[in-house]
Amino acid sequence: MRLPTNGSAYSDLVNWITGISRDHPVEIFTTNYDLLFEEAFEAVRAPYFDGFTGGREPFFDPVSVAGNDLPPRWTRLWKLHGSLGWKASGKDEVIRTGSNAATHLVFPEHLKYDQTQKAPYAALFDRLRAFLATPDTLLISIGFSYADAHVSARIDEGLAANPSASVFAFQYKSLADEVAACDLARRRPNLSVYAPDKAVVNGIEGPWQVSTELPSKDWGPIRATYWSAPASGGPARFTLGAIEAFGRFFAASRSMQALTATPAAIVPGGAAAPAIASGATA
Fold it and tell me: What does the DSSP assignment read for 21-51?
């Protein structure tokens, strides 16, 4: 699988990441196996760190993963379920090959939890825990159902331990179909779920209500980037749960974005739509 040459949601997200001013590296946590983020970063020569270092057989370095000494212009890319570019070396250690050979992945099955307790997965989940422990941090997820118990449990623990942390979950399906995300949102008021038809904010479920009065004359075009009123006369819907709309929204808003005190994170999940979480101060 390769990115299209005429642009993609991944390219839009990378354009946003590379085009904003920030004091901390952006962090991306993804459960996808593909190499599409890597391809998007390399297409624009944007530096990123995925936990591996070296030239001939890059090895995983948990000390660097745990550290915070990367320059702000770098991006941290954490593959929580492994990657198509990983394999086991002759010493039974995970190395990065850069190829598409799927040899070291964590599949969604009953053995997943046990597998995530081993290197390099344990260090990557520790990184997610450390991110959620950051004061006033914000995680925006897209394409993640929260049905992966071992991932959502770490998010649950992080939100419980750090009330100043927040998660915005942008969901593609109607709210009634996002059972796992809603269950967590009702238990943790610092996690909000935004579905096309309804939302759960501060533990309270409600339908979208859009004022007919705009706060400024420029607000109409801004609203159109995240709110869709079908021409057929159907109900209007919140659109940022779709990866294409999400990518365009952030790429278009990068001139107004500035990351100062808060790191950023991205959590893609699911083969159809990667989830992205960002700690931007808008």
Answer: EESS-EEEEE---SSHHHHHHHHTT--EE-S
